[in-house]
Design a protein that fits this description.
The structure is a homodimer.
Chain A: E1 8-10, E2 28-38, E3 41-44, H1 46-58, H2 61-67, H3 72-85, E4 91-92, E5 104-105, H4 107-126, H5 128-136
Helix pairs in contact in A: 1-2, 1-3, 1-4, 2-3
Chain lengths: ~140, ~140
């Protein structure tokens, strides 16, 4: 599933002179992922949040799925799983047929996106120094 | 791969009276996972850190793999990938043959475990309130 996480923390390696040609390895990137599980089910995770954001942007499940390079069927299943896990649904797609009408993010969906992204950001900011130390153990 | 993460944050749902019989759903659990990627490779992630911890405990790759219900081959491949990603190896298994001698965590391996777990803990502690809010959106 494509990642649209905003919590990438690229911590550059120790300050050596940069060679003119590109480095042999990609730069190490530290990234948090937050998952909320109920039993074996991932109720909320990066894939579902990215899907919600894409629906908020595009106004339809079809367009969101296309944007994320995901089948409509997979997008629909993820949303169904998410809606079942929540007290109130995150997406309202009552209008039109299965593929017909548009889909709207609900207030709960908006809250979910906001909390999730804020948590990722706060987590990342809380650990910058140790993240840098960890990344410095890696070869370049 | 088995998870041995210590960053589980179980945030109990709103304070309702507990029924005598077990709840219909498992309790939602919010969990951070930290990954460091270099290009497409996950250089450091929860599986590798759990494996390092098991080697530190058991003193051998064979015992650690068994403890984590993982094949020796898979454990060896994960360690090889990890050692290649680091400036200095996290595990020293020079002694004995491939299956023969014991394996020891190096100072780098110990640093890696410590930083990884400290980051998870700090991240989790930094977001307790928003985590609770997020978990409260979930049905019980």
């Amino acid at each position: 599933m494509p990642s649209r996480s905003t919590s990438k923390v690229a911590v550059s390696s120790v300050g050596r002179a940069q060679a003119a040609k590109p480095p042999a390895r990609a730069r190490p990137v530290a990234k948090f992922r937050l998952r909320i599980t109920t039993g074996d089910v991932i109720a909320v995770g990066p894939g579902k949040v990215a899907l919600l954001e894409a629906i908020a942007q595009t106004g339809s499940i079809t367009a969101a799925a296309k944007h994320l390079d995901m089948s409509y069927r997979r997008a629909w299943m993820l949303l169904d799983e998410l809606n079942r896990a929540l007290k109130k649904p995150a997406v309202d797609s009552a209008k039109g047929g299965q593929h017909g009408g548009g889909s709207e993010i609900t207030d709960v969906g908006r809250q979910l996106i906001e909390l999730y992204r804020r948590i990722e950001l706060a987590a990342t900011q809380a650990c910058q120094d140790d993240m840098s130390r960890l990344v410095k153990l890696l070869a370049r």
